[in-house]
Amino acid sequence: MSRHVTGADRPDGLAGSGRPPAGPPRAAVHAASGHRLGAAHPRQEGPADLRLVPPALAAWATAAVALDVPAGWAVGVVTGALLLAGALLSASPRGRSRAPVAALLLCVAASAASAALHGADLRRGPVPEAARHYATVTAEVEVTGDPRLTRPRVRGDRAVPPTVLIEAEVRRVSGAAGTAVTTRTPVLVLVDVGGGDERSATRPPPARWLTLLPTTRLRVTARLSPPRERGDRIAAVLRVRAGRRPPDVLAEPSAAQRLAGRLREGLREATEDLPTDARALLPGLVVGDTARVTPELEEAFKETDLTHTLAVSGANFTIVLALLLGPPGLAQRSERRGLAPRLGLPLRTTALLGGLLASAFVVVCRPDPSVLRAAACGSVALLALATGRRRSLLPALATAVLLLVLYDPWLARSYGFLLSVLATGALLTLAPRWSAALRRRRVPPRLAEALAAAGAAQALCAPVVAVLSARVSLVGVPCNLLAEFAVAPATVLGFAALATAPAAMPLAKGLAWCGGWPAEWIAAIARTGAALPGAGVDWPGSWAGAALLALVTVGVLSAGRRLLRHPWWCGVCALLLILVVVQPPPLARLIKGWPPPGWRVVMCDVGQGDALVLAAGEGAGVVVDTGPDPTLVDHCLRALGITRVPLVLLTHFHADHVAGLPGVLRGRSVGAIETTDLEEPADQAEFVRRQARARGIPVHHAATGEQRRSGPLSWQVVWPPPSPPTSTAPGTEGGPNDASVTLLVRTAGMRVLLLGDLEPPAQRELARSPAAAALKGVDVLKVAHHGSAHQDFAFLRRVAPRLALISCGEDNTYGHPAPGTVAALRAQGATVLRTDRNGSVAVAGRGQELRVAGD
Fold first, then answer.
1. What's the mean pLDDT in 491-502?
2. Contact 614, 747 (CB under 8 A)
3. Is-contact 626 650, C-beta < 8 A?
4. Dist. CA 27–CA 447, nearest whole Å
5. Between the CA of residue 667 and those of 387, 411, 525, 586, 637, what are the distances in Å?
6. Residue 810, Cβ neighbours under 10 Å: how many?
């Protein structure tokens, strides 16, 4: 039998040192460059080589456990493992039969030693002891990661100012006594940059804090505290109250980091004029810079399992190396189409260029553990494929895992590392088999490879993602499949813009503009997928839930193999899945009973806040308050089928009533926003105006006596009076609460009274106002201030509602609703429904026939 001999058959494993074979010029170039020629699909003999997998897994597990053990235990483990390994090797005459077990024990010993040393760094020195006493110190810290800004959040009725988070190492620390001690302790620095005024929640922090580069040395005065959770890779938290002051820089960053900073800043500048989504995504796709990604876009990526595209991963580096070595899909073939064979580069030169690319990748994307993991896994995956030997893939991945865990044992506890290894393992083991099975069923090769890769990664990673998010995405595979075709061009063009920005900014902007198109495509996929009613299902966020999901996945895959033999059943299952994800309103209403037919009022479950919807026609609704979370109010409106909002009425500017405004504005036509006259707190009033300006929505003040209509809905503003109550200190009666816009709504023959957060003084004044007569015996009452104890019970008796709605968060710390308020309402014969127990509440019916339903 004839045999085609290539350079791979040489004892030294190198090709191309001999005479190039005759043939066309292209073949000659390939032969001279050291890239193998021959059959398009060289046969891979033998089973997968799993010998390095057990040592890698043993080292991984040992590192995860040994980080917290005392030093004595770690010494015992290391000594015992070494002695046992030596005994096994010496007991065997040839030393081979027990060598795998001995190698595993040696890996355990090395991992235990490395983990013990890293764990000891968090327990020794003056910083951990000072943190246990919450001491205030002056410290010199060296920045080790990019500063990042926390997302705005709501605490009670206030918006919490953002905080700058900086990963750093304490190099020198001095306490109250003034004695300075040199150390090297990893910490997390929290910089409060709000400045202490009421506008701090919306004012950006000093830019200097956010532009600090790794290796920069700072002097800070901070209060130490222990980390929140045991097992963190930091010894303490340093809280710095900087206000509007810039950082005190002692030493500038290294030359390499300054170069990386210039490159990253050049990419930001090159993308500055792109559309919003492309401007946010392109730096994230290229170097993991997600500072411009909005919360709603980030939520859409989570819902569609596309978050990995925003983090620096092995895929980024694989795409870059593909330019040099060729597409991964051709790496198993004897001919490759990368730049290296076309330029006639030998294998050793190609490997050297790959190493230089890896080094540049690590420097530009920051040498933190996640980037090192990405570079190692990406390099191993593609370079192993480039050999054309399928048997070398798993050993290469196991080697990468082993070396990375020994280098940084904290990776053993990293969910990102676990997901990266699972995804890579899926691509190396399951994906080729699934792809071959699909091709046997006449699926086009490229589509088969893409489907197999997306499905395999989803199958192995889904249980871990469920632990993190307590949710399972039903659109993850199709969204990843559609996005896959855009990730590579966006990443390549983004890296080209990054490289050219320092020398030729116009060219960089042109490249970024080209890369913006695929980036916008990815964003559109994420937004569209997340907008589907059945995009995901809630799942237990525990390891028990992960095990259950793994069992379900195995069952689905087993059933899927049988279904593939029956195309008609495959079509039926696909149709059912589409119906579950799309959930056409008539079908969803029939199955879930939500929303109930003929609903008129819905109190949305938005946690500790207020958001209410009044039906104003087909697909239209007037929104009164938006709650504290954009995602929650958006989900409520989507479930109701609201696509058009004639009016958003914000009763007052407390964050638990207005912070969800972006969720209402997301993808909907909004006619106007109406607010109270008292624009306090000022930061939230400015937040509302900024949101309205960005979308060209007019903002008006509600006026007492104003009467308006929208479709079958009409309402009258009955409060506040022309001169609203003056501001008072937070937590006291009056101020923004007593300035709440109060509506008397008429719809389908029922009267609905919406009180906002009116306190007892305003309630008593309202009872004496000209509108008081119209308030007697209303049908539905939205109870003021989440059902708190601050109620005027005489006013409640006067109103005498048949149905009382209370919006409050489950297990909230404010005691809402107050038992006395609930008892007083029920004593008058009112039915009390509350969102913390009943979920979203819908009121339907007409006139005296009220019907209620909970989601």
1. 88
2. yes
3. yes
4. 29
5. 48, 40, 14, 21, 11
6. 12
Residue appearing with tokens 């959040």: 153
Q: Is the separation of the CB atoms in 741 and 657 below 8 Å? A: no
Query: Is the four-CA dihedral 214, 219, 220, 225 of positive or negative sign?
Result: positive
SS (H, E, C) 450-512: HHHHHHHHHHHHHHHHHHHHCEEECCHHHHHHHHHHHHHHHHHHHHHHHHHCCCCHHHHHHHH
**Residues 683 and 709 sit within 8 Å (Cβ to Cβ):** no
Give the pLDDT confidence of 44-73 residue by residue, as tens digits: 445 667 788 899 999 999 999 888 887 778
In order, the DSSP letters of 653-682 are --HHHHTTHHHHHTTSEE--EEE-S---SH
pLDDT of residue 384: 54
Nearest to 68, CA basis, from 230, 229, 225, 237: 230
Query: Which amino acid appears at position 816 of this protein?
Result: H
- How far is the CA of 268 from the CAs of 211, 265, 281, 494, 778, in angstroms? 12, 5, 11, 10, 57
Amino acid identity at 749:
G
Q: Which of 291-295, 316-320, 463-467, 514-518 has the lowest mean pLDDT?
A: 316-320
Outline where 338-444 has alpha helix (H): 339-343, 347-364, 369-386, 393-407, 415-440
Model confidence band, residue 15 (pLDDT cutoffs 50, 70, 90): very low
**How far apart are alpha carbons 253 and 412 in whole angstroms?**
29
Share of the chain above pLDDT 70, in %: 82
Spatial separation of the C-alpha atoms in residues 289 and 213, rounded to whole Å = 13
Q: What is the mean pLDDT of the chain?
A: 81
**If you search the block for the tokens 């910083």, which residue do you land on?**
127
- 534 burial type by CB count under 10 A (0-12 exposed, 13-18 middle, 19+ buried): middle
Neighbours of 489 (CB within 10 A): 16
Q: What is the end-to-end Cα distance of the chain in Å, rounded?
A: 72
Give the pLDDT band (50/70/90) at residue 322.
Answer: low
Give, for 843, the enclosing helix (H) or strand (E).
strand 841-846
CA dihedral 491→496→499→504, nearest 10 degrees, is -140
Whether 535 and 300 have beta carbons less than 8 Å apart is answered as: no
Q: What confidence category does residue 40 fall into, taking pLDDT thresholds of 50, 70 and 90?
A: very low
Of 442, 446, 473, 441, nearest to 553 (Cα)?
A: 473
CA distance 484 to 744: 52
Q: How many CA atoms lie within 13 A of 683 on its CB side?
A: 22
Q: Which tokens go with 79?
A: 């000594």
Q: Which residues pair with 854 in a beta bridge?
A: 841
- DSSP annotation of 620 reads B
Question: Is the sign of the CA dihedral 727, 732, 733, 737 positive or negative?
Answer: positive
State both tokens at 385.
């494929």
Distance between CA 509 and CA 271 in Å, rounded? 7
- Where are the extended beta strands (E) located within 244-339? 248-251
Which pLDDT does position 21 carry in this prediction?
Answer: 41
